[in-house]
Amino acid sequence: MYTQALSTERPAPASAVEDPALLARFQARIDAEERIEPMDWMPKAYRQTLIRQISQHAHSEIIGMQPEGNWLTRAPSLKRKLQLLAKIQDEGGHGLYLYSAAETLGVSREELVGQLLSGKAKYSSIFNYPTLSWADIGAIGWLVDGAAIMNQIPLCRCSYGPYARAMILICKEESFHQRQGYEIMMTLAKGTPKQKAMAQDALNRWWWPSVMMFGPSDKDSVHSDQAMRWKIKRFTNDALRQKFVDATVPQAHYLGLTIPDPDLTYDEASKHWITGPIDWDEFWRVVKGEGPCNKQRLETRRKVHDDGAWVREAAEAFAAKRRKAKRAAAA
Length: 331
Ligand code: BYC
What we know:
This protein is mainly alpha-helical. 64% of the residues lie in helices and 2% in strands. It is built from 13 helices and two strands; from the N terminus they run ααααααααααββααα. It has a two-stranded antiparallel ribbon with strand order 1-2. It binds benzoyl coenzyme A. Benzoyl coenzyme A (BYC) binds next to helix 2, helix 6 and helix 9.
């Protein structure tokens, strides 16, 4: 839906020198909260930043289908299975939406998917952890989708129109995902001692990876300053992480569960929950491909891509047939 009348020109390298008057005018538009649309002039680095962020986001949605897919055949009831199936389909839809938004910037979906399959592109660290029990499905919905909402609601006000608009539907669906996850956790936490222990174990394993999902601390975030000036990002990584922690700790208390952080304290003066130190070595290990499931996630994605070749070929053949019929009708 975003691909009408788009320039197919390849973006110039981000290093090329640009007209200072154009750059100043562009920044003035951003400062005035104007939306930038695909055919508008934009700095090359703005374009590249968006392609990087939106495509990483799309890849995360697509890879994110795997850990949850692991429990589809073992969901504890038909109702739970239908909910999970719907949620996973939503994630696939988000990925397609986001690839479309990225395509408005002059890059092809094939190229982006190729970068994912070759291992060149990043996707969210969170999806490189395994789902070991049914409670993990609850924890992912509650924590991972909860973190996603915190990060993505501000993206609805991103300066780039297609990305901002795509985020509106995505955030609505993520809110439903978060509720279904919390409801699973509530059922387990209020169930038998064994079920409560499962919920606690899932929280123990998903808490820190969810806290890390927001990206490196502000002092190590290489893109934040510029992305904030361009109003792609509206809050820094640490600011969003703090909002997430503040919202989530009381939810854990309501469930009667314990956040796995012995240093977690409530600071009366600032009214914030303060976490203990984050293990950034673990974060970077996972980002660099050494997490528990990185290899498995990419291998699965490559296999699925190969298995789906016939679908892409059939779709292309059908499109060619329709074009031919249209030409014949017009002749
Ligand atoms: N994992 O300068 P920084 C979802 C990389 S989907 C891996 O702070 P930026 C969901 C970063 O890419 C979740 N890599 O970067 C789906 C950069 O490397 P490059 C995804 C990470 O872009 C299904 C380097 O570290 N959400 O929620 O300003 C089911 C330095 O970082 C991570 C989005 O993509 C990470 N966690 O800020 C349920 C949202 N964090 O590119 C849920 C949109 C950082 O220089 N994206 N890196 O090689 C964003 O908001 C921003 O891109 C980030 C990072 C906050 C993630």
